[in-house]
Structures are given as structure tokens and as C-alpha cells.
Predict the 3D structure of the following.
Amino acid sequence: MPLFGTQEITTALTGEVVATKTGFTGKSWVAFELIFTYGSGGTDVDVDMETSLDEGSTWIKIARFNETTSTDRAYMTCLAAAAVSSAVSISAAPSDNTARSGILGDRLRMVVTSTGTYAGSTSVRVNYFSG
């Protein structure tokens, strides 16, 4: 899977935009692989994958990975063609470790928020693939 973005985590981060990618127009799905490498310290890391329907003016959270204090590898897939049966607030994040299907714009971005002071080479990496 190609690299979407990577972030070393040493201090608390609030909505740190790590990477933005374009080229998702007409894609039916996108899959994410999160690799969390835990060093020491810290409390909580949220990695939000967001999409935009208006060329980056506003962002909608479509997947949220949550990690704490152990090395982990996790996967999620978002489908563009799934029905959205109720309104989705642009500012609301999905629950931890869940994804929303039915919303896939022309671009995606990776945003990291962390609590506590991590150390010992703690990092998060997201790979992706779409089709």
C-alpha cells in the first residue's frame, strides 16, 4: 500500500494535518492501514481520515483510528456508493475505530490529535489504496 502520511508523536497534538492527497474523483472505495508504533508515555492518539466535497474548503471525518499505549496495526475501508440514511454532521467524528461509508470526495487528509507526552520513537503511519 502506498504511504498516505507519517507522524512522530512527542508532544500533545491538536488537529495536526499530516498529509493531504487528491485524485479520488470517481473512486468507489478507499482502504486505510494504520501502523502505530508505541515507544513510551502518552495516553491517547486519534487519527482522523477526512474527505472534502468542495475542494478542501470543508472537511468531513470518514474514519477514526484510536490508539493508546501499545503497538498496533489496524485496517478500515470506506465505500463511496453506500447509502447515507441519516444526516452526517461535518464536524462530528465517527466513534473510535469506525468508518463512515457513503461520503468520498476528490481529496483526503490525515489529521492527528494526541493526549499526553509520548516518547521513545512513538509514531503513526497510514498507508492507503483506492479503486
Observations:
- The chain has one domain: 3-130.
